[in-house]
Specification:
This protein is of the alpha/beta class and about 180 residues long. It has helices at about 15-30, 90-100, 130-150, and strands spanning about 75-80, 85-90, 110-115, 120-125, 155-160, 165-170, 175-180.
Length: about 180
């Protein structure tokens, strides 16, 4: 008699594994690209870890108005990239926006990324992203951006394609901590 005891083990699921992978890649690439020697790489030849350009903190006014209801409207540098939009109001910001989209090459979670003042990252996410995946993504993006633009307060905002805000993450360099606030359930 072959009696087999089966215990149900919860599966992580493809999306959870992908979110953890994206989060790990964000942190790994941020740590590797922050030496100021250009190891972050970009099409414009600038490094993510290079000297940060001047600008206001995330509480200041953003350069360039958003167009219509689009919170992640195009900025001066960058453009269409990897089936989405990756722009910034500085070359370094546009390079970081491209890098963000590179972390999700199939576009399962992210579609657009915009960096303003090298301190505010706005991303558009797919409507299928889970709350847990969004939480992890926000923490990872804020931590990665803080490493690329050190000494600045960082804000990461996530939006649905419609422009509805889903979440915000704040990194305070004096505390070295990321706080995430979910705005929609």
């Amino acid at each position: 008699m072959n009696v087999r005891s089966e215990r149900r083990v919860p599966s992580l699921g493809r999306r959870t594994v992908a979110a953890v992978l994206v989060a790990g890649l964000v942190m790994l690439a941020a740590a590797c690209g922050s030496d100021g020697r250009g190891s972050g790489g970009s099409a414009s030849g600038t490094s993510y870890g290079g000297p940060a350009s001047s600008g206001t903190s995330y509480g200041g006014p953003a350069r360039g108005p958003a167009s219509g209801n689009d919170p992640v409207s195009r900025q001066r540098y960058g453009g269409t990239y990897a089936n989405g939009v990756a722009t910034g109001d500085t070359e370094e910001g546009a390079a970081f926006a491209r890098w963000v989209l590179d972390q999700d090459p199939r576009g399962e979670y992210l579609t657009d990324a915009v960096v303003r003042d090298d301190s505010h990252l706005g991303v558009k996410v797919q409507p299928t992203i889970s709350r847990g995946d969004l939480q992890q993504l926000m923490e990872s993006l804020a931590t990665g951006m803080a490493r690329q633009f050190p000494g600045r307060p960082i804000q990461v905002s996530a939006f649905y394609q419609s422009g509805d805000k889903l979440a915000e993450a704040y990194y305070d360099p004096s505390r070295g901590r990321v706080d995430v606030q979910m705005t929609r359930g």
